[in-house]
Amino acid sequence: MGDIMTKHQWKIKRVNVENEKHLRQEERESKSCTNDRIIKQTITDTLKRMQADYRRGKLTKHDETVYARIIGNRLIQELSPEYSGMCSVAAIKEGHKAWTQGDQYYSPTYEHYNPSQVMGMRIVRTFRNRENVNPVLLGKLINEAKKVNKVTYEENISLRKHQKTDKFIDGDTAYDNTGIELRPWPKYTRFSNAKRMYPDLFSVKKRK
Asked: Residue 205: left (phi > 0), alpha (psi -120 to 50), or beta?
């Protein structure tokens, strides 16, 4: 028969598993930083070509749209998302329900607060008539594009109609129109803590 682990040994094992999980996450984040620098340089090169077209008087509205699409695709396909620390109320409730049913691996959907194609056009219009590409300003815009919140799958689908380039005003308006309420939710927080953190979301209103 194998040795039976004591409660203390199980606790140490769980801590080691959590530590290893965080180390793997840090390793992924380190790789993503390198990838983000490469993408930033690629976007800078694209903007410089656009600026050259503008100075020659050859940048049309159609060209702007093409450049915005190229940059937007770079942002959404290759840029590492950065969690904002905010989660929707519906996702918190859904995550807590999953935990009570034994599903410890429930994961909400990461949703870009600022749509990538919208940010692509914003970056194009910001740098179109400038002499060069300011890396600090570009970095700030890229960070805005990286920002993601945690929402449910259904909320993510509902948001899309409010995030189209021709309709998008800002993230707050899109979320308000979809009826999404966000609450602070630290990165590694388990949904088993939801009831303790936000008891108001789970309180049952008494009938009068």
From this structure: beta
pLDDT at 127 over 90: yes
Question: pLDDT by residue (tens digit) across 147-189?
Answer: 999 999 999 999 988 888 777 888 899 999 999 999 999 988 9
DSSP notation for 123-185: HHHHHTT-SS--HHHHHHHHHHHHEEEEE-HHHHHHHGGGSSTTT---HHHHHHHHT--EEE-
Stated pTM of the model? 0.74
Q: State pLDDT tens for residues 83-125.
A: 999 999 999 999 999 999 998 888 999 999 998 889 999 999 9
Q: What contacts 99, CB < 8 A, 6 or more positions away? A: 106, 190, 191, 192, 194
* Per-domain boundaries in the chain: 13-201
Taking CA atoms, 36 is separated from 41, 77, 137, in Å, by 9, 11, 15
Query: Measuring CA to CA, which residue among 184, 177, 159 is closest to residue 92?
Result: 184
Residue 201 in this model has a pLDDT that exceeds 90: yes
Whether the CB-CB separation of 87 and 182 falls below 8 Å is answered with yes
Task: Answer for the pair 150, 91: CB distance below 8 angstroms, yes or no.
Answer: yes
CA atoms of 35 and 146, how far apart (whole Å): 13
What length is written for the chain? Answer: 208
